[in-house]
């Protein structure tokens, strides 16, 4: 049991305002391995009363504590300490991801050591300060100040728990906010490890809390009058609900939601680069990525070559135990998700799309929520598999006749999160990029970079995370008019 709980000192307690305390619930949340279907751990289950305690601690720390009143450079010191503590726990973070989500350990262990980078980058931003002096029309000066938005509820999904949480926590801390983190009940461990890192960094009391809870209690948190902002990553359906609740009380909100991103392959594309650029989207995290290139738009002249190349790459993928050295793709995260993905595959077949490869549970794996990498072709953009987010290792090839038609197909969707174009012509790549209504777009692949703003158009969300824009999302803007500047701004 010690191994499965990843050196956590108090795995069955809540972290409220800097202290570990018992939940008022009598039961807990069981963690189930998606690879073995067996119980591998248990954490506390927060109640609404626990939520009230966490909000009260965060509210008091924001209204009366030192954190929001520190300078940016002062907070940066703590952020760098957090990064240092995270480096010590890199293997615990890696094992948590593989244990709960099924990410191959060979991949998670190479990623985890870099996760502290979110906090050092946020520290760099905080050190730049939050004041800008501008001339006022009537004379004198206007000091445009960015002040922390307040108490933040950070609600994150299960697919990349530490990365999605850090996009919120690192930047909110840099801004001077206090935070209540609510991880997914399927993947609570990273948030608890992070809480220990933040405690070890001696962040002031009340600034950070972690509440492991079911989704009904999460709804209570986003409705809480003591919460100034909700930052949510997850499904579009949940995001729209949260947006309606929070906006109804003029609360602040950032949402990063679903996607059905298109990879547009132009007629001069290098097929090798197409495979290199698309495959990590479809099999990384077993395809459970909101920015996956799940629609593959191909000119008729290249359709056969792309089908053959992608199918061969998919058939080569080693699916299995996340902790086996040879595994390249693990399982889907839950039994429900497994059934959902298989149902989408059935719908694709029923609606007339043809399976090039995959479509079933791997024959050698009779336990765990595994599915083969799957490629459809002969699909049209009105099919369910081309309209809805599958969130599994499923790609759909759609043929097109002209570049204009490809752009129209790519934009014909309720989502607008990511996308890419594959071409050897830089000018064509940029021209196409500017015409696709998505928040992120790549040339010959996909890039996600926490130093660059990330988010979506349309029903893929509101606001941006990462970069200076991500920091600004946790601030309010105030204009202070002064005839004379205070001493620290003279110079």
Automatic annotation (TrEMBL):
Family that this chain belongs to: Belongs to the aldehyde dehydrogenase family.
Keyword line: Oxidoreductase
Record InterPro entries: Ald_DH/histidinol_DH (IPR016161), Ald_DH_C (IPR016163), Ald_DH_CS_CYS (IPR016160), Ald_DH_N (IPR016162), Aldehyde_DH_dom (IPR015590)
GO MF annotations in UniProt: aldehyde dehydrogenase (NAD+) activity
Pfam families: Aldedh
Protein name, UniProt field: aldehyde dehydrogenase (NAD(+))
Reaction it catalyzes: an aldehyde + NAD(+) + H2O = a carboxylate + NADH + 2 H(+)
Database matches in SUPFAM superfamilies: ALDH-like
Aldehyde dehydrogenase domain segment(s): 20-480
Gene3D superfamilies per the UniProt record, alphabetical: Aldehyde Dehydrogenase, Chain A, domain 1 (3.40.605.10), Aldehyde Dehydrogenase, Chain A, domain 2 (3.40.309.10)
Species of the source: Sphingobium chlorophenolicum L-1
EC number(s) from the headed UniProt entry: 1.2.1.3
Enzyme class: oxidoreductase
